[in-house]
Structures are given as C-alpha cells and as structure tokens.
Amino acid sequence: MLRPVLPELADEIIEAIRRDIEIYRRPLTGVFGRNVRGSVEFALGRFLDLFGDPERESVGNRDVYVQLGRGEFLQGRSLDALLSAYRLGARMSWRRFVEAGREADIDPDVLFGLGEAMFAYIDGLSAESTEGYAAAQSEA
Question: How far is CA 104 from the centre of its chain?
Fold first, then answer.
C-alpha cells in the first residue's frame, strides 16, 4: 500500500531539502543530483523492506549511510545538514504514510508501529552517517 506513493514522495522530499536546508540549495545535477535522488529513494525503499521484514539482512546497506557521512566531511559540509535532511524526510514520509494508511483503512495500531519503526530507522541512519563522518574526520 505504501510503495506506490514512494516516487512522488521522493520528489517532494528532494524539493523540500533543496528549499529548507540552505547548504543543499543548488541544482541537483551531475553526481550530486544523482546521489541525492538515489539516497532518498534508497532510504525509502530500505525502510519499507525492513518494516515489512524486521529480520531482513541489512548489513551491506549501512555502508550507503556511512559513505554519505564521509562524503559530507570530504565536501566540507557539517553533519548537521545531512541529519536535518534525514529528519525532514522522515516527517514528510510519516505524513504521507499516515494519509495512505487512512485511505486504506489500516488499523491505527499498525500505523503507530510504523511511526515507531520510522523513528528507530532515522536514528540508525544518523548513527551510520555520524560514524562515516567521524572516520573521515579522524583520517584527515
């Protein structure tokens, strides 16, 4: 029920990131644009995969967010901007997922579980990116 909203949601999140987070206010072209779009789409899909199957193996996926953290340091940006983008994406996703759940008449307890899982997921992404940022900082 949630997967059909992902493409439009990804577009909305990307536009909000560009609008609301100053350091990302630039054209989403080239490698930067592909990285932003790919990261948003990957994060949304990974969340739904893990929510649908909490036992699913995701060890290899953590490298994506470790590398995003490293990249922020290597590009001279603070980690705050990336973590703000994660929180913004989570808020927008939560709103859209609740709307879709209501339209599909999903039990509110399932939606509450979805919200709890989303908070835990964003905490995990943030920790992975912080790890990558700190490692790059330490190496420098």
Answer: 24
Q: Which residues of 16-29 are buried (b: 16+ CB within 10 A; e: fewer)?
A: bbbeeeebbeeeee
Paired tokens of 94: 């939560």
* Count of Cβ atoms closer than 10 Å to residue 135 Cβ: 14
Of 30, 134, 43, 133, the closest CA to residue 88 belongs to 43
> Is residue 60 predicted with pLDDT exceeding 80?
no
Q: Which two tokens stand for residue 11?
A: 């577009």
Which residue did the predictor score with more confidence, 91 or 1? 91
Task: Compute CA distances 135 → 5, 74, 131, whole Å.
Answer: 35, 11, 6
- Residue 102 half-sphere exposure, CB side, CA atoms within 13 Å? 6
Average pLDDT of the chain to the nearest whole number: 88
Q: Assess contact for 69 and 82: CB atoms under 8 A.
A: yes
Question: If pLDDT is split at 50, 70 and 90, which confidence band does 32 have?
Answer: confident
Cα angle, residue 29 at apex, residues 46 and 96 outer, rounded to 5°: 40
